[in-house]
Amino acid sequence: MGAPVTAGVARVIGAMVEGKAELDAELGKQVAGAIAKNFKVKPEEVAILRVTGGGKHMEFIVPARLAQVGSIPMTSTNSLAVRTARDKRAEAINNFGAAQHPTVFEAVRLAKGESSEPIQKIISVPILVGGHSAGVIQVSRKGKNPASAGPDFTQKDVEELTQVAAALAGCFQPK
């Protein structure tokens, strides 16, 4: 993935969400598909979350199936999404399976016939609006082990997803 591809996917996503006041599940699914294609992952391996409840929770926009499972309290001490939003810092973790994190969402089967393999590698990027975290985008690679999950994420991947987050920011309001 080079910078021109990133500018391209960020531009495509910017055009998809232009004039939209809020990212709903249907538009979120389209955006996740474009992100998945860019990062060569399955659409189910892209998550977009929104900070809600006056900043007390995070809820999934996509995958839609996870939105039905529940929200994540912003007081969670081992949720990567919460840490990303709280610290306003993007990161890639290529040994995520070894990190302590809640696994309730990983156990949910997102597609028929899908196995519930654990996340091995992940990028997590805040969506910032006016200097405040309004959401998080995560791109993951699942597998039985890190080697079977695919290539490691790089700093360039983090930068690309950060550009995508900036393109999505107009559809988020800090709450």
Task: Write a brief caption for the model.
This protein has helices spanning 3-17, 25-39, 64-67, 80-87, 146-149, 155-168; strands at residues 46-52, 57-62, 72-73, 91-93, 119-129, 132-142. It is an alpha+beta fold and 175 residues long.
Shape: globular
Structural class estimated from helices and strands: alpha+beta
The beta-strand count equals 6
**Strand arrangement, largest sheet?**
3-2-1-6-5-4
> Averaged pLDDT, please?
84
Strand percentage = 15-25%
Helix content: 25-40%
For the termini, the CA-CA separation is 33 Å
Q: Could you give the order of the helices and strands?
A: HHEEHEHEEEHH
Describe this structure in words.
Helix content is 34%, strand content 23%. The protein has helices at 3-17, 25-39, 64-67, 80-87, 146-149, 155-168, and strands at residues 46-52, 57-62, 72-73, 91-93, 119-129, 132-142. Strand 1 and strand 2 (57-62) form a beta hairpin. Helix 1 packs antiparallel against helix 2 (25-39). The radius of gyration is 15 Å and the shape is globular. The protein starts with a helix and ends in a 7-residue tail after the last helix.
